[in-house]
Amino acid sequence: MKLQVLIIRKDVLLLRNWIFGTLQILSQKINAKLHDGVCQRCKEVLEWRVKYSKYKPLSKPKKCVKCLQKTVKDSYHIMCRPCACELEVCAKCGKKEDVVIPFNKEPEKTENVENNLRSSHRRSCRRNEVNDDDLDFDIDLDDTEEEDN
Fold it and tell me: Which Pfam families match (predicted)?
């Protein structure tokens, strides 16, 4: 981590951390974001924000205007996904417009469980799966051949 000292005015210093790679990772996540559950106009607005580097992701969930709980996890949206799906409105502007890309019916947390586990626990789980596979035997225990003779 490098520190750079910038002189703004006399006797005023601004310390700025230069961490290489963080901005690239953040911009890749923003570019990969799918804007679903919004109308055509709101989708164009969000794409413009991404294109001209004005899009800022949320740091913590916002409050939904319908259910009044902190469940809004998408930037610039005013409604959570379940409320927007239930009312069939745009999650960003709240108008009853045609939604361009509807929300997925699957829950958001469909990621692989292994991503959240520590590597040692993940390895032990894999070893257990391999051991369980070794115990499966395909032995035919029927005595049908002996009875036929």
Answer: DUF2039
Round to whole Å and give the CA distance between 6 and 88: 50
pTM: 0.56
pLDDT digits (tens, 9 = 90+) for 13-57: 444 444 556 677 888 888 888 999 999 999 999 999 999 989 999
Query: Which DSSP state fits 108?
Result: S
Inter-residue contact 71 to 78 (CB < 8 Å): no
Range 48-54 contact pairs with CB under 8 angstroms and sequence separation of 24 or more = 49/76, 53/27
Would the pLDDT of 113 be above 50? Answer: no
Q: What is d(CA 72, CA 81) in angstroms, rounded to the nearest whole number?
A: 7
DSSP 30-86: HHH----S-BHHHHHHHHHHHHTT-----SSPBPPTTT-SS-B-STT-SS-HHHHHH
The helix (H) or strand (E) run that includes residue 15 is strand 12-18
52-55 contacts at long range (C-beta below 8 A, 24 or more positions apart): 53/27, 55/30
